[in-house]
Structure formats: C-alpha cells, structure tokens
Amino acid sequence: MPSIYDLKPKFQGLLRPSVTRMATAGVTANQVTVLATMVSILAGSMIAAFPDSKWPLAILPVTLLFRMSLNAVDGMLAREFGQKSRLGAVLNELGDVISDIALYLPLAMVPDINSAGVIGFVLASVVVEFTGVIALQVGSERRYDGPMGKSDRAFWIGLLATLLALGWMRPNWTLAYFAVLIFLTILTIGNRASRALGASTKN
Question: Is the pTM value of this prediction over 0.90?
C-alpha cells in the first residue's frame, strides 16, 4: 500500500549536499541518531510539561519534520560514507521506538485528545517496528511497508497537532482519528509480517 516512505529517495536527494558537508566535517551517523532521539524527548517533554498550552502542539510538526530529516541523514551517512556499524544498527532501532514513545505518548495528557486512542496508537506503533525487525529473524530484509510506517505516523500526528493548535479539531473527533490510525497501524503489522514470510519463503 502507498506510504510516505516511498518518497524517501527524493527526500534524500534534497539532503545529499548537506550530508556530504556533514561527513566532510566529521559528523557521524551515530551522533545524528542520538541527536534525533534527544530532540524527540525534549519535544515530548514540553507537551507533558504544558499539556494545556497550544504552543507545544504548534511546534510538534516542525519537530517531526526535523526528526525525519535527521533519520534520513544518519542512514545516508551510514550507507554512503562507510559508517555502518553494529552499534549504529542498535541505536537506530532503539532510537526510533524511544522517539515515537517520547513524542506521541505525552499527547495523552492533552485535554483535547482522547488518551485511550493515543495509548493504543503508541502500543500498535511499537509492534509495527518490532514486526519490521522480526523479518530479519525469518531470513527476510528489514521491512518498512506501510501504510503506517514511521514517516506516515509523523505526518498524521503532525497534522493532528496542527489542527489542535489552530482549534480546528474537536476533542470528541480525536477518538475517531486515532481509531483510523490504529486500524491502519494493525494493517501495517499484517503487511510487514506477510511480506517478511513471503520473502523468506522465496529465499
């Protein structure tokens, strides 16, 4: 199914000149991965600290875009500049899950958002990434299938945060919003699992 992840090659093309300069300056993929996680924790902490304020929600879409950029940068540094490492693989997987939890779970504290929907979405998102990694255990490659991968989650949560910050989202609508996201997330789990098994059978 379509996913924002499909746009990754074009996004990387835009970032490549900056990534080249960063590599020349000695910036490492692991440093970028850790920075992305720290930025996510900071942004999530702001939401948790000021759940009644609109400004943490207003800056969340910018934070999510910045995080996605850093995620693309660390991957490019690792692949294109010989920085792949076992530590980097661990940091990358852990960083993604920690960042998702840090950014999204504090939304459950925001009065205008249905907390049960947030918690269900976060739990399902963790299972999505776990399913992608499990593919390696059955002889397949790491799965990034959609329709609710990391980039897709960032887009839809960023949109929700924007609507809430502008006062364009009614509190009772957020349950339906998260219900749809959870459904798509469960569908993603199925897609990743089935394609991992299909690929392993071919191998």
Answer: yes
